[in-house]
Specification:
The chain has 169 residues and is α+β, with helices and mostly antiparallel strands. It has 5 helices and 7 strands. Strand 1 and strand 2 form a beta hairpin.
Length: 169
């Protein structure tokens, strides 16, 4: 089963590709279009992994592509209600609904077209479950990071803090 870590966009090539294997100097990818063609991608190509893509926001925080995909699915279901071929004002209005914190100065209609097109490709290929898997992995990471924290009321921690307070006084 694919994950967002296995799905990439390749600069200069339309559509999305799924990583099938890794080689010493590149990747073997399979197109997610109807042709399902496989090709070798060497290190000369610029590849963007969907898991790592973020959208510019007005406050400088990270808005992950997977979060935008989740919002689209909440509002539209399996297919977006707008085509990636829509006019720029329509694209901007739509994106304002699904990503209200995005920075309209730095997110161009061409970027919005890609997001819509990618979402529809994932839907067509029955890969929208990768969004849920990304969310589950996110939740696991948050749980794991909390596991290393000492429990509240730990006597040793309280004693250390008391000692530090007394030393600084």
């Amino acid at each position: 089963m694919a994950s967002l870590k296995d799905i990439v966009s390749i600069t200069g090539k339309s559509g999305l590709y799924q990583i099938r294997s890794r080689t010493n100097n590149g990747l073997i990818v399979e197109s997610l279009d109807d042709k399902r063609s496989k090709m070798k991608i060497n290190t000369n190509f610029q590849i963007s992994v969907l898991e790592e893509i973020t959208i510019y926001t007005q406050d400088g925080s990270d808005l992950h592509l997977r979060d935008v995909f989740r919002k689209i699915r909440e509002q539209d279901g399996e297919q977006t209600r707008i085509s990636h071929k829509a006019k720029p004002p329509e694209l901007k209005e739509y994106f304002e609904e699904v990503a209200p914190t995005h920075d309209p100065e730095r997110v161009y209609p061409s970027d919005i077209k890609k997001v819509i097109q990618w979402y529809n490709i994932l839907s067509r290929e029955n890969l929208l479950s990768v969004i849920d898997e990304a969310q589950e992995a996110e939740g696991d990471d948050e749980q794991d990071s909390g596991a290393d924290q000492p429990a509240e009321g730990n006597d040793q921690q309280s004693s250390d803090e008391d000692a530090n307070t007394q030393e600084n006084a």
